[in-house]
Amino acid sequence: QVQLVESGGGLVQAGGSLRLSCAASGIIFSLHVMGWYRQAPGKQRELVASITRLGSTNYADSVKGRFTISRDNAKNTVYLQMNSLKPEDAAVYFCSAAWGTEVDYWGQGTQVTVSS
């Protein structure tokens, strides 16, 4: 059974930082492209950042320079370091795992709230 379990969300003031973690089980973690998506109320889910098997990263323009995605294949965990948070970053953040170009598995999501 595949599980992606996110943690680290919460309430933070604008300008603050949070670090999200996603622990994966039931998949060959090192062979999957891992990603973080977010969905704010009334909006579509959007890609925030992704990291390939070899560690190449991709970011949404809105988070470049502020967020950093990383992975630890030994721990089957992907991280999202979020700095200089803005109220518009508030959303439910979802971890994803993809074998190919489409997401195969999703986490349950973790709420990030940013107060202004």
Please give the share of residues in helix. under 10%
Low-confidence stretches: none
Quote the distance from N terminus to C terminus.
40 Å
Number of helices: 0
Query: How many extended strands?
Result: 11
Structural class: mainly beta
Average pLDDT works out at: 97
Given the C-alpha coordinates, what overall shape results?
globular
Beta-strand content:
over 45%
Using only C-alpha atoms, the radius of gyration works out to 13 Å
Order of helices and strands: EEEEEEEEEEE
Largest sheet: 7 strands, mixed
Model description:
- The chain is mainly β and 116 residues long.
- Helix content is 0%, strand content 54%.
- It contains no helices and eleven strands.
- It has strands at residues 3-7, 10-13, 18-25, 33-39, 46-51, 57-59, 67-72, 77-82, 91-98, 103-106, 110-115.
- The strands form two sheets. Strands 2, 4, 5, 6, 9, 10 and 11 form a seven-stranded mixed sheet that branches. It has a four-stranded antiparallel sheet with strand order 1-3-8-7, with no helix packed on it.
- A hairpin with a 4-residue loop joins strand 9 and strand 10 (103-106).
- The radius of gyration is 13 Å and the shape is globular.
- The chain starts with a strand and ends with a strand.
